[in-house]
Amino acid sequence: MTNLRTKDIIALGFMTFALFIGAGNIIFPPIVAQQAGEHVWLAALGFLITAVGLPVLTIMALSKTEGSIAILSSPLGKVASLILTVVCYLTVGPLFATPRTATVSYEIGFSPYFGNGNAALFIYSVIYFAFVTAVSLYPNKLLDSVGHVLAPLKIFALAILGVAAFIIPTGSISPAINNYVASPVSEGIVSGYLTMDTLGALVFGIVIIHAIHSRGVTDKKLVTRYAIIASLISGVGLTLVYLSLFKLGLGSHDVAPNAANGAVILHAYVQHAFGDLGSLFLTALIFIACMVTSIGLTCACAEYFSELTKIPYKILVFILVLFSLVMSNLGLTKLIAFSVPVLSAIYPPAIVVILLSFFWKKFNRPSAVIAPVTAISFLFGIIEGIKVTSFKNYLPEIVQTLPLNEQNLAWLIPSLIVLIICVVIDKVKK
What we know:
There is one protein chain. This protein is mainly alpha-helical. The chain folds into 2 domains: about 5-330, Up-down Bundle (Amino acid/polyamine transporter I); about 340-430, no CATH class. Helices cover about 75% and strands about 0% of the residues. The protein is built from 17 helices and no strands. Helix 1 packs across helix 11, helix 2 (about 25-35) runs antiparallel to helix 9 and helix 6 (about 95-115) crosses helix 14 (about 315-330). The radius of gyration is 21 Å and the shape is globular.
């Protein structure tokens, strides 16, 4: 029986952490901190629940199913499980998340030097995805290339930024604004929810399990144990990064007053802390952060669709990368416009499936509990998706009065009610 060496376990944890941390993860906390002001740590608590807690739980859940979303969602039935799995992979893969890594890294790191023209973005995305392809073609080397090389580079850069946030403060704490005045925790929850890390965790599971297998570990209990350890290491890393970024944004009003987004705050802070070298540092950090995430997503999607379609893995890498390349050249604004409604619809059922997977053994008939709750969460998820489109005016007035509607969590209470009813019925009908 093969066991992982300590350094490989640590590398696995670093790799898992690095897969999660993309540009979006770095940008969100500073803007939350600035807007939350004196309520920042309450907002941070909510943020950590959904941006750290849920992804870690997802990896733990997947560790028991060999990284398979299909097995995790099997109580939904074959058709519903397949649809959920395919949609998750496409969403965080070639449709939205993977092309967004290229677009975001260009707009934040390189557009100040090369402009916002279509030609410059195209040339950059070709070079960017060439790197992604080169690494993704060899998934068995992922622990070496990402865990031992790219992940430490990303962690080193984040550590510099995190330490600087504490030793080079920017200014005074600003008053809370918007929803952070009355409900900082729930607003933080929604902000963390929008990082997409839970969906990312659903597809990264197979990458993590494959990395463990690549070291010759076949025992299921050991695979589960190592995956859980990796998720906990990544959880600690994510927490430290987020706390330092919250600290960075807390006093940022003096250097970036009323910032439109976290990127503005980051640009202003690195200029304040590091001078002209700050822009180059931020460019390198964002590039590596996005690159690692893109590699992980490409590998995960190629692995899954290779199993599903029997098309060779390497051919699928080229297909997925080419599609991502095309999508990335639509521009960030269009990508976000397309992705938000879809994410709003599929996030609730994904969360339900993940959380209820820990209670399978408690139910006499898991499908009779999980399927109805997932269905109702998806129904309300669709409503959440419509709310962020031009069709929102067609929704009935009652939708606006639903509990937690303003927090974009209107699906939560109906799902809990259906869960309670289904559990009672399940216990009665033994």
